[in-house]
Write a sequence for this structure.
């Protein structure tokens, strides 16, 4: 199966917002309603404001198989949570702030990553392929503006951690945060590329 990555800003120009909202309404994510809600209610507005850009993955028939959302964001990484090798690598892309004993870094953020539960294609897109597509877009941006670190956050769930930390994706946990608004613990992961 061949897939096409389409930037949501291009779709806004081609179809207009109202038609695009109809296209997006076909996306469902039963495992994580936050993923579905973001695409339906925030992706267009965030893209128009250049806060983050969503990329839709279409199959050959024009169905949305999946999507990912990317942005660039500052973060703090506690040095003590990384091996010496990783600290040295991080120091190439960050500044160590002695007052908080953490590396200050501006890095690429994979803000959303989701597959369409309604997708009925012959070959459902794999999570690894979806991640590869996001990293490919980030590598193109990296050529233009630099950078070498990508991070993401996920709920503290074994299935998600296995996926992000598998040999293929190779993200490493560097911290955590607790969301007061949704009462969820999120793990923060990063990788160098």
């Amino acid at each position: 199966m061949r897939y096409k990555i389409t930037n949501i800003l291009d779709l806004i120009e081609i179809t207009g917002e109202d038609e695009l909202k109809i296209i997006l309404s076909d996306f469902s994510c039963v495992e994580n309603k936050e993923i579905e809600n973001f695409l339906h209610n925030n992706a267009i507005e965030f893209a128009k404001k250049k806060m983050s850009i969503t990329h839709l993955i279409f199959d050959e028939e024009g169905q949305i198989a999946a999507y990912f959302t990317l942005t660039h964001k500052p973060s703090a990484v506690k040095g003590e949570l990384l091996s010496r090798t990783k600290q040295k690598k991080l120091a190439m892309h960050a500044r160590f702030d002695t007052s908080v004993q953490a590396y200050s870094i501006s890095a690429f953020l994979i803000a959303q990553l989701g597959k369409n539960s309604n997708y009925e294609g012959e070959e459902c897109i794999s999570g690894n392929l979806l991640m590869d597509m996001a990293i490919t877009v980030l590598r193109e941006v990296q050529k233009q503006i630099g950078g070498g670190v990508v991070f993401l956050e996920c709920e503290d769930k074994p299935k998600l951690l296995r996926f992000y930390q598998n040999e293929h994706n190779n993200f490493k946990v560097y911290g955590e945060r607790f969301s007061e608004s949704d009462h969820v613990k999120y793990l923060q992961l990063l990788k160098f590329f």
Remarks:
- The mean pLDDT is 92.
